[in-house]
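[Meeting: bench + compute handoff]

Bench side (C.D.) handed over the final construct sequence. Compute side (W.E.) agreed to return the predicted structure before the next meeting so the bench team could plan truncations. Sequence as handed over:
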Amino acid sequence: MAVHPSFPAKTVPEFIAYAKANPGKINMASAGNGASEHVLGELFKMMTGVSMVHVPYRGAGPAVTDLIAGQVQVMFATMPASIQYIRAGTLRVLAVTTATRSEALPDISAVSEFVPGYEASTWYGVGVPKNTPTEIVQKLNKEITAALADPKLKARLADLGAEPMAMTPAEFEKFVADETEKWGKVVRAVNIRAE
């Protein structure tokens, strides 16, 4: 949850108070309708009762650029898209959206410390066609898990603010189903339509 450095709120509670005192006056950037930044922000709005204006862009790059320029005030940006600007001081981070603090920014609070139950992570996974033989799925899983354990890859991911989550195929299947259900509720609640 990054803001322009001139934004008056310095913490999540201050942000919520400011947003409630100024309904509809905060512009929330995203990479587009239905993008992760959009649904993460909508979940925040639902759980806190704040009113922000969604400003969809054609990708994270233009959205972050306008956040840096002060054209919009807040973005629930992914860590890889924003961490270099946070480290440089051109963006100010109020909190991370993961369930707990990030190893990349250990001094930064998690939103859930102020909004109980808020957890939102952008993730990437590898999928194969449904009828792929089990032995191929197992071999791919073994190799991917080994790669995620490689110290060089772990260090590179950590530099980007990403944290690997190795799972078995069954665990990943359940994870995808749970995420689909969770975000489907947000999408339906606010009637998000992809463009």
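W.E. noted at the follow-up: The helical segments are 12-21, 36-48, 60-69, 79-88, 134-149, 151-159, 169-189. C.D. will use this when planning the next construct.
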